[in-house]
């Protein structure tokens, strides 16, 4: 893997991880288009460690408060009645589906799920679903009102991102809007929900990333650092953006990219595998 490829993919990972446009889909498309190769699901999973480190730094106070509240709740019944204690458990519960499905379907995720015909289709289909959720979701529920049922459903929505093109944040934002959560609430919860699953996936696939003609250790480290820096800026931008804007711009982008990819595949300008 060349240094140019490492840096470009690190930037793409940082830019797209938190937007509802699918970072894994963009990495897959960019790699095939510009470098004529697939970096693999393992590279994507490990590169995400950089963007999730950005989440931890950005939300350090919130994460520490939730963690300490969760620990205190084991011995203090009064703490167990707080919103923070419940939210901490919902993050844990919501992380279970993607962990289980990721292990069960590891082979399929690394092979057939990376076909660009599938990526193009999921970009369009889940873009339409995101638009419908924005249009018809009530958007009245704050983050404190997320229920256990919501947490489980959002966890399965996040798990859909095991298929490149779906988008982890896009899946959770779509489901959250459909469940009545407001945009700032679901985006914030999406960030928190990603931490256990993404770190778990990154560590789980770390041995695979250096197999074959993949990146060296120092190249992978640089990709993670680049993704961290760009991702940190993307978090700040997205949180500000969703306060006063709809997600329709992402809907339009996803559909346009999916249609363009289908056209490129149809004329043989890019290989699907």
From TrEMBL:
Compartments where located: Cell membrane
Keywords from the named record: Antibiotic resistance, Cell membrane, Cell shape, Cell wall biogenesis/degradation, Hydrolase, Membrane, Peptidoglycan synthesis, Transmembrane, Transmembrane helix
TM regions (residue ranges): 87-105, 117-134, 186-206, 218-239, 251-272
Catalytic activity: di-trans,octa-cis-undecaprenyl diphosphate + H2O = di-trans,octa-cis-undecaprenyl phosphate + phosphate + H(+)
EC numbers for this chain: 3.6.1.27
Top EC class, one word: hydrolase
Job description of the protein: Catalyzes the dephosphorylation of undecaprenyl diphosphate (UPP). Confers resistance to bacitracin.
PANTHER family assigned: UNDECAPRENYL-DIPHOSPHATASE
Further details from the record: Bacitracin is thought to be involved in the inhibition of peptidoglycan synthesis by sequestering undecaprenyl diphosphate, thereby reducing the pool of lipid carrier available.
Entry similarity comment: Belongs to the UppP family.
NCBIfam families reported for this sequence: PRK00281.2-1, undec_PP_bacA
Protein name (database record): Undecaprenyl-diphosphatase
Source lineage: Bacteria, Bacillati, Actinomycetota, Actinomycetes, Pseudonocardiales
């Amino acid at each position: 893997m060349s240094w140019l490829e490492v840096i470009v993919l690190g930037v793409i990972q940082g830019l797209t991880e938190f937007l509802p446009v699918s970072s894994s889909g963009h990495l897959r498309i960019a790699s095939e288009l510009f470098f004529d190769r697939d970096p693999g699901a393992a590279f994507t999973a490990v590169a995400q460690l950089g963007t999730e480190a950005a989440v931890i730094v950005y939300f350090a106070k919130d994460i520490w408060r939730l963690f300490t509240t969760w620990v205190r709740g084991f011995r203090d019944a009064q703490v167990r009645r707080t919103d923070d204690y419940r939210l901490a458990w919902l993050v844990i519960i919501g992380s279970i589906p993607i962990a289980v499905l990721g292990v069960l379907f590891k082979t399929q995720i690394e092979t057939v799920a990376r076909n660009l015909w599938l990526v193009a289709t999921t970009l369009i289909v889940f873009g339409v679903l995101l638009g419908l959720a924005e249009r018809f979701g009530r958007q009245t529920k704050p983050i404190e009102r997320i229920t256990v049922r919501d947490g489980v459903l959002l966890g399965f929505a996040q798990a859909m991102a095991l298929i490149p093109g779906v988008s982890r944040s896009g899946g959770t934002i779509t489901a959250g809007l459909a469940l009545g959560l407001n945009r700032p609430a679901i985006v914030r919860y999406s960030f928190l929900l990603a931490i256990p699953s993404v770190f778990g996936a990154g560590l789980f696939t770390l041995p695979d990333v250096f197999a074959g003609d993949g990146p060296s250790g120092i190249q992978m480290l640089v990709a993670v650092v680049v993704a961290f820096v760009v991702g940190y800026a993307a978090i700040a931008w997205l949180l500000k953006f969703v306060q006063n804007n709809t997600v329709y711009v992402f809907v339009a982008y996803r559909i346009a990219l999916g249609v363009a990819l289908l056209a490129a595949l149809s004329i043989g300008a890019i290989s699907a595998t």
